[in-house]
Amino acid sequence: MYAMQYGITLPADYDMKIIRDRVAGRGRLTDDYEGLGFKAYLIRERGTEGSPVNEYAPFYLWDDTGGMNRFLWGGGGFGGIVDDFGRPDVSHWTGVAHRPGPAFGTAPGAASRLRQRMPAGADPRGPVARALETWEERAATAGVHTTVLAVDPRHWETVLFTLWDRTPPAGVADPDRYEVLHLSAPHLHEVPVGRQWP
Length: 198
Description:
The chain has four helices and eleven strands. It is α+β, with helices and mostly antiparallel strands. The protein has one domain (2-190): Alpha-Beta Plaits, CATH 3.30.70. It has an eight-stranded antiparallel beta barrel with strand order 1-5-3-10-7-9-8-6. The two termini are 14 Å apart.
């Protein structure tokens, strides 16, 4: 399991209907993408849910890194992003845990992301164990469609990403909030549930 996300920051006066129309026209192209657990087509709009920017920021959960490779440099889709917006940096994380939540049967309308750096020099077992506890609690929260925990061992950070049926509850402190325009989940049922090691 592997997670990735890139963010395309757009001008403050950018008409986000352009992105909405783009997703409406192209989102279905990943509905049967081989190796893809899910792709959440996400946007943030300046002034909405506290966002300081307009941004298009899809989040991917890959069941198979071969599919990710094909997408990024094998002619499987990323070229369209590069052609239209330039090549963005792609954040990527090794999958730690994945679980569907109580609202799994609904179409998600929102997403949230919490990125946390581990203390410098710390043994990663402690921070990851604490992040797993948070992830377990999150997975049982009303309104959760799916939640994923992953780690970037280059920068030593955890990311907790959650799809919600609608706006996250008031008690959720995740600073990054998104609107979900479309969810492609062709192989989500093949992504192992729970912690990703014995």
